[in-house]
Amino acid sequence: MQRNGKKMKKRHLLLMMAMIMAMLATACSNGANGSNTPENDGKPQESDQPSGGKQGEEDPYEGLPKKVSISMFDRGRVSSDEGTYEDNRWVKWIREQSGIDVSIVPVPRNQSQDSLNVLFASNQAPDLVWEYDRSYVGKLVSQGVIQPIGDYIEKYSTSYKKYLEENPDLLPHLTFNGEIYAIATKRPITGIANHGIWIRQDWLDELNLEQPQTVEQFIEVAKAFKEHDPDSSPIVGHTTSDIYAAMYGAINSMWYLEDGKMKYGATLDRFAEVIELEKQLYELGLVDREYLTDNDNQRSKQLWTTGKAGIYLGQWGGGTNDIMIQDLLANVPEARPVPMEMVESPYGRYGAFQESTPNIFVTFNKEIKNPKAAIEYLDWLVDGGWFPLAYGEEGVHYNMVNGVPKRIDEDKFNKEVLYAGEYAVLRQQVVNPEDLLAMASDDEKSQKIAGLNVESIKLTLKHEFRRDMPYQPSFDEINEIRSTLDTFIKETRATAVTQGEKYDGAWALGEIRKEWERLGGAKAEEIAQKWYEENKGGF
Which of 79, 272, 297, 527 has its CA 20 to 30 A from that of 169? Predict the structure, then answer.
C-alpha cells in the first residue's frame, strides 16, 4: 500500500511535462486573468478586470468567501444516527481541515445523470459536478454547462498540477475539444475492476454442477436452479444488462472498431444477440420479473440476501457487495457465495466491465462563483485529505500495519466511514489484491469476505473487458444523439424482453438502427472515424 503514485522515468517525464505545460499555457492564453467564465468563453473582457487596475494586477477571486458545493452519489449508506449525506461527521471534518465551506448536493446513484441534468436545467447544479462516465462529461461540454479549467490549474493549483505532470497519460482523458475540462486521479486496481458475478457454490454442489464456462452453460445452470427451487429467482442483480452486453463485447453506449471502421455498440449485429439472451432468460423465468423497474436495487438485494437467488450480477466486491454477503451469511449460514468467472460467448471470452485509468471526473459548473477555492479544495484532497475519508480515523477505524491501514472493526467502519469514500473525489491510492486481506479486520467473518474479494478481483481481471480504444470519442453530434437514443434503447430493450414473441432481438436492433439513422448516426460514424484516424497513433 502506497499513498503516492510511482514517478515516470526522468527523460520521459520531462518530455511529457513540456507537452502538458504547452497545453496549459495555451489554455491560459485564452484568459490572461485566469477567468474562464461562460460569458467571456475564456476571452478577457472589461467586466473581468478589477476596477481601476490593469489586467493581471489583482486576482478577481481574492477576498471572495471560500464556499464550494459539490455533487455526491446517494447510495443510501448513511445511517440515521450518522446524519445525512449533506450533514455528518465527515462533512464537518472536511470543512474544518480544508478551510473551505463545502456543501454536498446528493443525487440518487441509479438516476444520477438524469438528476444532474435537471439541476443544470434549473440552474441549481453545484459548483463541482463529478461522474465516473467520461462520455457524460462530453455531453456537459456539448451543452455548454461546464467550462475549461486549464487556466485555473495553471494559476491556482500546486499539488494537482504536480500530480498531472507526473501522470501525463491522464491528460487525453481530461481533454475535450483541445481544452482541459476535468480533473481526475488514477484508479487503484480495486477501482479498475468494477462489475462481477457471484454464484451460490452450495447450490452447485447440491446439484453436482460445475461453474458455467459458456453462455449456454450459464442458462443451463440457471434452469437447474429454478427446477430445484421453483420459488427462486435464479439470476438477480443491478448490472445485468451490462454484463450480458460485456459477454458479447457490445456495450450499447460504446464505440467499437469493426474491420477498421468505427461502429456504435447499439447498432452492431451482436447487440441483437445480447437482447435475445436477456429475453430468453426472462421468458424461461430465470430472472426476477420486476428487475427492469428495480431502479434502487432493493428487490435484487432482498432476493439475494434472503437466499432466494443463486446468481448475482453486480460488482466484484467491496462496499455494498461486502455488506450483501454479510447479510446473506447472517440469514443463510450454510450459504457459500463465491465469485464466478465471466462466460464465453460465440465472440470470445471477455471480462465484465472494467474502468479505464481515470477515476472520478470532476468538472466545474460554468456558473461557479469561486474557482480558486474549488482548486484549493481539490489540492487539499490530493495532498492527503482523501486518506481519512477512505479509511477513517487512525486508532478508531484502522491501525497502520506494515504500511497498510488495517480495519479494527468492520461493522464500525461500514457504519461510520464507508459512506464517506466518495467525498474523496481525488486520491493518490495504490492497492494490491493481497492488501485486501491485510486491510480487513481479524475476525473470522471479515477475513472470509476479504479472502473472497482477493479471489474475485483476480478472477474479474482474468479476462480483458473489450475496449477497442483507451477512451471514447466525445463530440457534439454523438452527445446530442445520445440524449434521445439512450432512452429509446432502454424502452426498446424492455419491449423486446417482456412483450412476447412478436418482439425479439432482431426487431429491437432494427428499431434502434432506424432511430440511429433518423438522429444522424451516419454523420456521427463519419466524425468518429475521422477522430479515430487522427488519434490512433497515440493509443
Answer: 527
